[in-house]
């Protein structure tokens, strides 16, 4: 092989195209025959030393390995040089929807009249971009909201290479990833539930029952006592005595049925019938009251079935919520702003709001005085990420920096700066909003059955009493008639009465 083979191969390596590999160069070194070298009239062959041949191969292998390690950095560096040489800035599209200002909000510099960005998303992007140190500027392009526009339209703009990147509250989805490259998520994954806290006051034991149910229950207790007294007081000594004793016994008996502690013995079958029906009513009433009160006092995750929930109209989670949380027969309400979230929960038009966790944290930060809690629900979304053109090396570089920021605590510090609220910490240990209280409409059937039984027993007892008095009156008339027909008996009775 000629002594020029090694330099030629090295030059080929340094300036080779991508189609020439290290294997081809090694083959050149090993397989090409040596070239004869003329010296005067003699031809002699000067073979290349095996050591030189091995040394050349090792150099080429080292250079190839070094190239593999630095290929990505080189392409990034070349892209940076290209941007710098062209004087081009990174064109970044920012949604100007403005519903959650602490996440992303466009600002206008009054001196230069240039667009700027503030908020949690921008701070994360800015910190990661500075760490990469591309040496190029950033140009913010507002993307104003118009009827029919959505975040998918913003993705399309980047996909068509009209802009280099997009930042904001943009959810990572599988379909969007087909057209653009996302960084790793810089927010919490999944969706959460925002709900009102349970009431905490000294009268919380009254909350399980509505006012009309409390009133009708008290009236039925009094009516029960009256019915039992009316039936029993003529024959049962326990319901006799002075008026004060009778009233006390009657009230005690009526309210002792609430805990099944009545000790007075009932003699009439009508009384036993009325008490049997009433005990069933009391059993259902106390069981329902206990269950509702336990829901008020027990920390638990909110149940969304058979409830009305709200979610953000511009968000991409509508189908996710419906498909993954099994919300059959649930009424949905579309909301757009943090103010609408608070008004809907406060007015009771929705029982809870389901949205991505960062949105709910934003609401709690904007309204720190609101008595709401954030409850983790399900990891059904991928969080927010920054958008870049397909194949852009910046997506990978930014992902690395986001990972570093998360490990170093920088990401948490930025989140605390924009989204922290002392009275609201994301947890599964928040109490759920008050469940639906019991009302008379839901239990009207029980009271109807009990009322009919009491009225029927009272009617039968009254008829029996009237019939008994009527029979006694008839018997007295008959006895008087007999005495009038036999005056001697009447006279004897008068004599005896005189004596």
Automatic annotation (TrEMBL):
It comes from the Eukaryota. Gene3D superfamilies: 1.10.287.70, Periplasmic binding protein-like II (3.40.190.10). PANTHER family: IONOTROPIC GLUTAMATE RECEPTOR. Coiled coil: none annotated. GO terms for molecular function: ligand-gated monoatomic ion channel activity. It is found in: Membrane. Belongs to the glutamate-gated ion channel (TC 1.A.10.1) family. GO terms for cellular component: membrane. It holds the Pfam family Lig_chan-Glu_bd. The keyword DNA-binding does not apply. Keywords: Glycoprotein, Ion channel, Ion transport, Ligand-gated ion channel, Membrane, Receptor, Signal, Transmembrane, Transmembrane helix, Transport. Residues 91-421 form the Ionotropic glutamate receptor C-terminal domain. The chain crosses the membrane at residues 54-78, 209-231, 273-291, 445-467. It is a multi-pass membrane protein. This is Ionotropic glutamate receptor C-terminal domain-containing protein.
């Amino acid at each position: 092989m000629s002594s020029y083979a090694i330099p030629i191969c090295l030059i080929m390596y340094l300036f080779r195209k991508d189609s020439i590999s290290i294997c081809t160069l090694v083959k050149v070194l090993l397989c090409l025959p040596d070239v004869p070298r003329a010296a005067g009239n003699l031809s002699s062959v000067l073979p290349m030393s095996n050591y030189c041949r091995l040394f050349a191969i090792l150099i080429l292998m080292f250079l190839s390995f070094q190239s593999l390690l630095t290929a990505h950095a080189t392409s990034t560096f070349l892209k940076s040089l290209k941007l710098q040489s062209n004087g081009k800035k990174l064109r970044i599209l920012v949604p100007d929807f403005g519903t959650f200002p602490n996440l992303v909000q466009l600002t206008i510099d009054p001196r230069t009249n240039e667009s700027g960005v503030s908020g949690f998303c921008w701070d994360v992007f800015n910190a990661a971009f500075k760490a990469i140190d591309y040496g190029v500027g950033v140009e913010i392009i507002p993307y104003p909201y118009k009827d029919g526009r959505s975040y998918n339209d913003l993705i399309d703009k980047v996909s068509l290479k009209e802009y280099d990147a997009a930042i904001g509250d943009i959810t990572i989805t599988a379909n969007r990833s087909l057209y653009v490259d996302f960084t790793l998520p810089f927010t919490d994954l999944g969706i959460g539930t925002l709900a009102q806290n349970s009431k905490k006051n000294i009268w919380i034991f009254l909350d399980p029952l509505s006012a009309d149910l409390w009133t009708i229950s008290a009236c039925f207790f009094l009516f029960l006592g009256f019915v039992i007294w009316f039936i029993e007081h003529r024959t049962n000594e326990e319901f006799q005595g002075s008026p004060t004793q009778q009233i006390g016994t009657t009230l005690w008996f009526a309210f002792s049925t609430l805990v099944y502690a009545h000790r007075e013995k009932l003699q009439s079958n009508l009384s036993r019938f009325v008490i049997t029906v009433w005990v069933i009513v009391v059993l259902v009433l106390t069981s329902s009251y206990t269950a509702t009160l336990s829901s008020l006092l027990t920390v638990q995750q909110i149940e969304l079935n058979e409830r009305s929930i709200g979610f953000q109209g511009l968000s991409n989670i509508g189908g996710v919520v419906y498909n993954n949380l099994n919300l059959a027969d649930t009424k949905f309400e579309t909301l757009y702003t943090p103010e609408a979230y608070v008004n809907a929960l406060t007015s009771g038009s929705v029982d809870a709001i389901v949205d991505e966790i960062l949105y709910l944290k934003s609401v709690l930060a904007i309204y720190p005085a609101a008595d709401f809690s954030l409850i983790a629900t399900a990891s059904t979304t991928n969080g927010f990420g920054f958008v870049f053109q397909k194949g852009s090396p910046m997506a990978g570089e930014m992902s690395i920096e986001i990972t570093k920021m998360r490990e170093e605590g920088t990401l948490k510090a930025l989140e605390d700066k924009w989204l922290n609220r002392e009275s609201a910490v994301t947890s599964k240990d928040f109490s759920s909003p008050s469940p639906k209280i019991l009302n008379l409409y839901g239990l009207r059937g029980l009271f109807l059955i009990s009322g009919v039984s009491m009225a029927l027993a009272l009617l039968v007892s009254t008829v029996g009493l009237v019939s008994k008095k009527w029979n006694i009156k008839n018997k007295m008339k008959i006895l008087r008639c007999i005495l009038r027909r036999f005056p001697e008996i009447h006279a004897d009775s008068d004599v005896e009465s005189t004596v």
